[in-house]
Structure formats: structure tokens, C-alpha cells
Specification:
The chain has one domain: DNA Polymerase III, Chain A, domain 2 (Roll). The protein is mainly β. The two termini are 22 Å apart. Strands 6-5-4-7 form a 4-stranded antiparallel sheet. The chain has 1 helix and 9 strands, in the order βαββββββββ. A hairpin with a 6-residue loop joins strand 2 and strand 3.
Length: 113
């Protein structure tokens, strides 16, 4: 996979997800082992962030509370490549910025801004 960048607006919903993950136990995406507070970066029918907590988060009518990357909602069309779920440190979201950009490649995930 070539490197892809995903930008997320820091919205009230994203802040709710961050708060939920910071106050509840979290797990590693595939092993479900306990880990530090984090969010899941998910790529399937779009690209989105959601809580990595084992405690169920209040949901919207459409299911889990998620925040989609700009241009990567299910309505934006098919995104090629394999699906994935990766943990993103909660510290990346302790910011006053209005957007957060994450770079994903075959061997790394980096916070760009």
C-alpha cells in the first residue's frame, strides 16, 4: 500500500470519542489485550475513528459513534485495498487544532499535524 493521508475534523463527536476512550479500559485492535487509552483507526466502508474502549459507548441511530475522515465516508465510493483496524494513541488528540492528519503506510502510522 502506498502512503495515504486521512484528515479528521476535531468535532464535538470526536471529542466525545476521545473522552470516552480516556475514561475507560481500551484494548489492542486484533488481540483484545489491554492497552493505554487509544482510538481505533478503521478502514472498511470508509475511514473513521472510534473508541477502543471495552465499555460500550452511547450510540447514534446509525450505530457506534464514529468520525469519518474528510472524503472517506461510505457515500464517497469504494476505497481499494485491505481493510484494517489500528490503535491510535489518545495523546494525538490532545490538541487545540481544528484538524488532525494521519499518514498510514505499510510499515508505519504517523501524526502529521
Amino acid at each position: 500500500m502506498k502512503s495515504m493521508r486521512f484528515t479528521f475534523k476535531v468535532t464535538p463527536d470526536l471529542l466525545k470519542i476521545v473522552e470516552h476512550s480516556s475514561k475507560n479500559p481500551c484494548t489492542v485492535a486484533y488481540t483484545r489485550e489491554p492497552t493505554e487509552p487509544s482510538l481505533f483507526l478503521v478502514k472498511d466502508m470508509g475511514v473513521y475513528l472510534m473508541s477502543a474502549s471495552t465499555v460500550k459507548q452511547p450510540v447514534k441511530e446509525t450505530g457506534c459513534l464514529v468520525v469519518y475522515a474528510d472524503g472517506y465516508t461510505p457515500d464517497d465510493g469504494y476505497i481499494g485495498g485491505d481493510d484494517f483496524v489500528e490503535n491510535i494513541p489518545i495523546s494525538w488528540f490532545n490538541t487545540k487544532k481544528k484538524t488532525i492528519t494521519i499518514d498510514v503506510s505499510n510499515d508505519s502510522i504517523k501524526l502529521i499535524n
